[in-house]
Amino acid sequence: MTGPINRRGFIKKSGLAALTAAIGTNIVYANHLPEGFRPVIFDEKNALAGKSPELIIRGERPWNVESLPHLLDERVTSAKNMFIRNNGLSPEKIDLQNWKLTIDGESVRATKSYTLADLKKRFKQYTYQLVLECGGNGRSGYQPQTSGNQWDQGAVHCAEWTGVRLKDVLKDVGIKEDAVYIGYHSADAHLSKDPAKEAISRGVPIAKALEDETLIAWKLNGEDIPAIHGFPLRLVVGGWPASTSGKWLERISIRNKVHDGAKMTGHSYRVPRNPVVPGESIPETDEFYKIIESMPVKSLITYPKTGAIVKPETKIDLRGHAWAGDLKVTKMEVSIDFGATWQECELEAPANRLAWQHWKTTVQLPQKGYYEVWARATDEKNVAQPMVIPTWNPGGYINNACERIAMKAE
Ligand SMILES: Nc1nc2c(c(=O)[nH]1)N[C@H]1C(S)=C(S)[C@@H](COP(=O)(O)O)O[C@H]1N2
Ligand SMILES: [Mo]
């Protein structure tokens, strides 16, 4: 983010008005603030973007920020608690008046563009809660370590998105029968700032693109999408790696082959077709790798926070969420005895398809001492989360091992 602070972290002489706006109030003794000092509130970019101060900075360039299970306790994740994953540099200026969404590619009848006003006026609007989980969420669990952000469990959110169905727009454009894939193109810049390169350009098969819940959205939780989450327009594809949900959306190409944009190939968002020995590298070709599609079954314990100190023999509330990519979660269980016995939890239906499901239960810790709560979700195909870290893969993706939290009774 640019704005009132220059690259060395100092306030620009011209920046006082912008600073005041960012803080939301005036700086009373601004004239005494020494050159080279910036308000402490801006020690982290998070404050500027209105993010919860507890979020963990995983990288400055690109800017990547992780949430925490207890911050994800809300039924619908608020913007301030959402993780941020950027592959490049977010756009500095948004020209709202001239912002267009263009639909092109080998498999459209004719290229067509829509202004934001066109989209809002011409198509029916829908609102869905959708789980977006980074394909690399949980990466820090893999040994040997793989490259990329060392996400723990917080690279997931389920917010409420409003927009139009991609399928309605594609119907208006007219797509050819040979369409197999879509690929998005966005306004963010490659880290090198080379305009010929894209930071990321991913997509999904046409069948996923045409699902009811696949949105071209301009609202998050009823407000404009925050700048860092894709303002003014975002493709939102629930249940699949969140890298398929293109922020700052400008163009969608309808492809007659698997989309081959940036981060669709190599080991980006792909896993070996057959298990590999941890640490082994294999040729990065389609023969050896497949694209990650629906995300695996997973859950979070969002309350209490790990490390909670409780009283023995009293009822303790536990709660969280569970999700399973394109599928429903059918069972949620917890264990307080390291997996020897499991107790079934109350599990709600999702608000809509591809939303996470809330679960809750109570446990009683029989005596003073240290405990762990383990949580395990099972999907409608009867596949459960593994207790141990799943098969290693070179990109460190789709670690859906059970979450564990610590509890002490005293
Ligand atoms: N244009 C664009 N879209 C993008 C990205 C990006 O770098 N540029 N990152 C993707 C990845 S890898 C993830 S996990 C999600 C993160 O969404 P969030 O930052 O809103 O949480 O956005 C996806 N969409
Ligand atoms: Mo991601």
Could you explain the architecture of this structure?
The protein folds into three domains: 1-43, no CATH class; 96-291, Sulfite Oxidase, Chain A, domain 2 (Alpha-Beta Complex), CATH 3.90.420.10; 298-409, Immunoglobulin-like (Sandwich). Strands 5, 6, 8, 9 and 10 form a five-stranded antiparallel beta sheet that branches. The chain is mainly beta. Strand 1 and strand 2 form a beta hairpin. Helix content is 8%, strand content 30%. The model has no long low-confidence stretch (mean pLDDT 92).
Label the overall shape.
Answer: globular
Query: Which structural class do the helices and strands define?
Result: mainly beta
Count of alpha and pi helical runs = 5
Cofactors and ligands present? ligand MTE, molybdenum atom
Number of domains: 3
Quick one: biggest sheet?
5 strands, antiparallel
Quaternary state reads single chain
CATH class of the largest domain, named Alpha Beta
Q: Kindly state the percentage of residues in helix.
A: under 10%
The averaged pLDDT comes out at: 92
The succession of helices and strands, N to C, reads HHEEEEHEEHEHEEEEEEEEEEEEEEE
CATH topology of the largest domain: Sulfite Oxidase, Chain A, domain 2
Low-confidence stretches: none
What distance lies between the first and last C-alpha atoms, to the nearest angstrom? 46 Å
At CATH level 2, the architecture of the largest domain is Alpha-Beta Complex
Quote the beta fraction.
25-35%
